[in-house]
Specification:
Bound molecules: 3,4-dihydroxyphenylalanine
Helix content: 40-55%
Shape: rod-shaped
CATH class of the largest domain: Alpha Beta
Largest sheet: 7 strands, mixed
CATH superfamily of the largest domain: Bira Bifunctional Protein, Domain 2
Amino acid sequence: MKEKLNEILIAAKEEIGKVESLHELQQVKSKYLGKKSVLNGLMRKIGTLPKAERPKFGQTVNTAKADISKLIQNKQQDIKTKEYADKLESESIDISMPGRRKEVGSLHPITKVMREIEDIFISMGFEIAEGPDVEDEAHNFDALNTPEDHPARDLSDTFYIDDDVLLRTQTSTVQIRVMENHKPPIKIISPGSCYRNENDASHSPMFHQVEALVVDEGVTFVDLRDMLKIFVKKMFGEKIDSRIRPHFFPFTEPSAEIDIVCVKCYGKGCNLCKGSGWLEMGGAGMVDPNVFDRLGIDSEKFTGYAFGLGIDRIAMLKYKIPDMRMLFENDIRFLKQF
Ligand code: DAH
């Protein structure tokens, strides 16, 4: 009997030693300790033994069972420890590897400049007005005193959507929309997108302007000149003066073009200003009485000035951007710099 038990113990030890998974271990366990195991079979034979031998026999079988059970428990622990170690190994994190960074976006240079312009004018008591990019001829041309045969109305210059509907070519349209709805005093700026059929290093089919309109009793050309001087200095620094030159716009009389001292050479003359010492910034003038009359504003009582500046041009000068198209190609390497 003892021998038989020893054999079983050796066999069990050997099998348990070979086991590699908890599943296999479970099978070995039921083979040696389960109801149909050899050990249980032996135990059932206890009845056939003489009474005196029974306790001893029972004890021996139980000890064998306990030994096997211990072996199985140890094995189970070994397997679990190994599985855990494997898991740690396979899921290990290389902390020397660079992490995945979340890219932080930045404002587009046009947006930045637009906000800066808005802040300057708001600090001087202006309000922000808005108008639609898709306009009608009435607001883009007629109300701005632009004759039927004006070249700007040509299909080759303006993007028409329909006979009468177009993409606004200037933010001056907002002057009209504001005056349609508000009586003077008026003091607004209106930044926004404009569209013209042109495309080269200094022109983009979509570009940006900021329009200003001030209407009240006693507004003069000097107020216009001074406001431009103040704005330009706030935007580009004390050294940058501005001037106005006679020009023509259908909706202002007199009209002027605005120049600022070259931001690169401070007026000495360089490649940026083509030797003149000045850079063009936009148009301006005193609101033409014809414009007031159409809108039912008393042109005997009120006067007003208006101007329109190129925002893209301001951004290009501020950030030293050589080609206007770079602003709208949306190359991330370019945009990241701002
Ligand atoms: N809208 C004109 C343009 O796009 C610029 C301009 C000129 C705006 C005179 C004005 C102005 O308000 O008074 O060329």
